[in-house]
Amino acid sequence: MQIVIINSNATELYVIHKILYQIKDIIYYYMSASENVRYIKIQKIGEGAYGIIYKAQDVQTEEIVALKKFKLSDNEGVPSCALREISILNQLNHPNIIKLISQIIINKKLHLVMNYYDMDLTEYLKFNHEEFHLKNIIYKILLAVEFIHNRKIIHRDLQPNNILITNNEPVLIDFGLSRVLSPNMTPGVTQLWYRAPELLSNCNTYDYAIDMWSLGCIIAEIALNKPLFMGSSEIHQLLLIKNIINGNEWFLHNSQFAKLNNLFIDLINVCISLEFLEIIIS
Amino acid sequence: SYQNDNLQNLLDDQNVSSQCLANHRIREWARGKMIDWMIEVFASNNDDYSNNDLTFFRAANLLDAYLRSSYNLNELDMYLIGVTCILIASKIEDIYQLSIKTIIQDLSHNNFSLFQIKQQEQIILETLNFDTCFPTVNDYLQYLFLQLFGQSKNQALQIIQET
Questions:
Q1: Which residues does ATP bind (chain A) (predicted)?
Q2: Fold held by A119-281
Q3: Is the ipTM of this complex over 0.95?
Q4: Residues on chain A touching B54 (C-beta within 8 angstroms)
């Protein structure tokens, strides 16, 4: 009996020993893994067709960053929107355009590491602000857009959600849809409310003017505190544009704009002019 | 002023790709042959939505840029690098990119596997540090044409400029 008990003890000990070794292996595995993982995800911020955005913390510098994770398809290698976004952001160096800190591959998935800001223009406009802050924001946005247009890049997705605010300074983000100007481009870009008429009518030869249209809508939104055209479909959007704009001096007859400065109205008017040639190009 | 800014940016962002064969055992003839083959590919690939010219120039300049910043490559490696450059250029310039399947079957006649091309793509992108949007020869030519013929009212010159 005793021998049997000792035997069983021995086997138990042996089993425990083996388990301990396995646990040790697992702990070592995770420790080595955590050395590679420099960023710890805190929460999910947003999600789109391209992938998911996380708020994350840098382990080394304890800085809060935004991680943009791309869905890698198995058959096509690096996705084209990721490729365009990285190469364009690498090229741009401007205080009002987001900086790409680095691009890393975690678990065979491509992640972009960018600065984190917690407020976008839509949220910013929910509070009351001084007029010169708003003017400054508009001016800085215009500067940033001029900067990218000078490099032959069209943003193609300008909307208040893609403009972040930090210390009353705007930062342009999300270059996932932007590209270098070319003769043929796809018309299905920009969020519907900020989409230019040439895109709504499915034209595939367009240029920087579509960004200026979106800018005009954004500036009007900053002034009025609500979006200018809120269409529910492409046709509805076109109808809204047609109804509001009758002739050249439509702003003067519109009660919404009565309280605004004349120069301000001119700026919006020039940005969203229906005459194709009159829309200013940067 | 807009034109001046444009020129300044073109010069600032320019990617020097001369002397690209200095670090390799590749003859100039082999690189020339590769470029000829690229022209052939883009001339035959008549898709409505493919910006053939832009994609070709992008591919050729990517090839040069990669050769310039890498070392000790063989003439035998050229084929895989060229095919992969076409893939990357198509991803940047085209509305509908060439799929890897087309590239394997039609362009490389099943000489390379999916894994090989994906691996080479990653190597090229990491070597160039994802810096693939630099202005190509095409952009400089366009600027030159605009300066030379832009203000002219001569019809023949305007036709040249439009093409």
A1: 68
A2: Transferase(Phosphotransferase); domain 1 (1.10.510)
A3: no
A4: 182
Determine the Cα–Cα distance for residues B47 and B55; give it in Å rounded to an integer.
Answer: 12
As a CATH number, domain A38-115 is 3.30.200.20
**What is the per-residue pLDDT across B117-163, written as a single tens digit (0 to 9) for each?**
988 998 999 899 888 888 888 888 888 877 777 666 666 666 666 65
Residue-wise pLDDT for A219-244, tens only, equals 888 888 888 888 899 889 888 887 77
B33 — contact with chain A (CB < 8 Å)?
no
Structure tokens at B17: 């790709």
Quick check: A29 and A20 in contact, CB under 8 A? no
Which pLDDT belongs to residue A140? 93
Task: Identify the band that residue A77 occupies on the pLDDT scale cut at 50, 70 and 90.
Answer: confident
Please write the tens of the pLDDT for every residue from A9-55. Answer: 666 667 777 777 777 666 655 554 554 578 888 889 888 777 889 99
Chain A CB contacts of B87 under 8 Å are 77
- The CA dihedral of A223, A178, A161, A94, to the nearest 10 degrees, is -70
Burial letters B54-81, b for 16+ CB under 10 A, else e: bbbbbbbbbbbbbbbbbeebeeeebbbb
Please, which residues 98-127 of chain B have a Cβ atom closer than 8 Å to chain A?
99-101, 114, 117-118, 121-122, 125
A174 part of the active site:
no
Contact A75 B133 (CB under 8 A): no
Between A and B, how many residue pairs show a Cβ–Cβ distance under 8 A?
70
Q: Which of A58, A118, A157, A266 is catalytic?
A: A157
* Ranges of each domain in chain A: 38-115, 119-281
**Position of tokens 């020129």?**
B7
Query: Would you say residue A1 has pLDDT above 50?
Result: no
How far B75 CA lies from chain A's nearest CA (Å)? 25
Residue type present at position A245: I
